[in-house]
Amino acid sequence: MGDQIQFIVEKLNQEPFRKNHNLISFDSLEPLQLLQLLSDVLGEIDPKHAVDIREELPEQTAKRMLTLLGILKYKPPGTVSDLSAFRQGLVTGSKTVIHPVLHWLLQRSNELKTRAYLARFLVKLEVPAEFLQDDTVADFNKQYEELMEAFKNLHKEHEQLKISGLSTAEIRRDISAMEEEKDQLAKRVERLKKRVETVQNHQRMLEIAGQLRLEKEREESLAQQKQEQKSQLFHAEQRLQRAQVQLKEMQQVVADSKPESLMKKLEEEINFNSYLVTEKIPREMESKKTSVHFLQKVVAEPAMTQADVTALESERDEVNAEINQLIEKRMIKYEPADSEFSMYRQQASIISRKKEAKAEELQAAKEEMSSLERQMEQKSSQAHEGSEVLTEDEFKQYVSKLRSKNTFYKKKRQEIAEITAEYGILQRTQELLRQRHQGLQQQLQAIEEKKGISGYSYTQEELERVSAVKSEMDEMKGQTLDNMSEMVKKLNAMVAEKKASLAPVIKELRQLRQNCQELTQQCDEKKMQYDSCAAGLETDRSALEQEVKGLLEECAQEESNYRYMNCMKRSLEIQLQRAKEELKAYMSPDPQERRRAVREQYTRIILEQENLGKKLRDKQKVVRESHGPNMKQMKMWQDFEQLMKCKRQCFLKQQNQAAIGQIIQEGGKDRLVL
Questions:
Q1: Of the CATH numbers 3.40.980.10, 1.10.418.70, 3.10.320.10, 1.25.40.10, which one belongs to the domain with range 1-123?
Q2: Per-residue model confidence (pLDDT) at position 81
Q3: What are the structural domain ranges in the chain?
Q4: What global pTM score does this model have?
């Protein structure tokens, strides 16, 4: 619960709330303030709920919040009775109800904003069945549902585009590039059409070309199917070969082996499997169960603070130290008696550990061998995919074919070299002829300039080319005019047929149009009446609402003034009562009553303080007069203390020297005795 409140406070202190709460101030909020805070959070998720709860009734506030929480799919904990308690707690602003709601809302605010936005358009408006009997209402309802489905699809596409990361600039560039490519392809198609239309029987040739393309596509699909069937056949042959190899190996094993060896292998395998089943796997399962039980126990416990963790660590260290001490005591106690048995125990534990390690190594080796076999099969299938395993004779034929192809390749390479040399000669000849042609053109231009007819040859060539183009265009125009005339005739005939078939329908449509106009006029009249009535009622309602709002504000203002005046009156009455009591006590002839008066009390306190000040001034005077002699006496005592310290040091030094001399004398006497 503390982590939950801390999370709520951190989120509320961030943008866009900026509440500046701490744990104490948040926990001390009143129920009305908590409800307002919840309303602010809901208003951030859905702007329609950003309202002041003081301006609406508590029932309206609870209904509004429950509606939005239902749209956001908030599930309060507990049963049906808990749900009623939840509603009651939401109305009264209970902390146990509002804190979990705030934590849930702030934890997934972005997701809830999207859900609230979609709810504005996807919460279906329920229309009563009797209104759907009207065709107009039914059509509008159907259109409404279609628009809702269209909005769903558009929102999904929008989210997918946001996730895909495509920007509008990239899309526009792609569209412009595609449009340019489309224009180029259209121009190219037009040029090809013009070029093909000059050929005789071009329509027949186009049909044949289309059939050829279809046949080529069919040929490609058949070739692909053939390749797939070949690969399937190859895989089947590979599986057959592997099965044959395994069969031969098993036959050899059966032929070479004896019943004793087979039984020995089976016994070894059975012993290994029984060891795994009876010892290794149960021990591992037990350890896993204990770890799971421990983890479940840890999860079931409440959240621990740093102080709890530190206390547990210190307790763990103490327990470990105690265990080590007990182990040392046990070793000291039992080591002399059980030295031989301890050696055997150590050997047995070492052997059991080696046995477990070897069993794990064997199991890992088996798994590695199976994985390597699978990899070998995959690699062999990838290496031989699309090919066949060649025998010795086929390999020799393949080598001979390769040699013949090598000689053929060398021959063709020599021919290519000769053709390349000839191409160079022809290119050089073309260059010489081009230069000669340019020289002749220049001479022809010079002669034309001398004769005064410059550009004659170029004009003649252009005229011939234009005449050829003109003849082609005339032919195309004639064909186009014929096609257009035929098309116009066909269109006129079709129009006449359509007119004849639509004549009765048009008559019925005219009658229906008249009925529609009459119904539309009636609908407009009814609508005008409804609008005028609704407008009058709306104006009356708005006026009443304004009046009620003004009266409520006036009532609240008057109530606040009344409460303020009552408070002021009460405070003045208390002050007046105190003044009367003071005057009564001061004027009373009884001395005990007079002493209880405030004036007498303050007078007595003043006298006491004046006497105390007089005593302190006298004491200060005495201290000032005795300060000099006292300081001198303190200095004499300090000198006396230092003198006594020096005497003590001298005495100790003299005593040490006397002790050393006595020891030396005793040592000399001992030597003399020896």
A1: 1.10.418.70
A2: 53
A3: 1-123
A4: 0.28
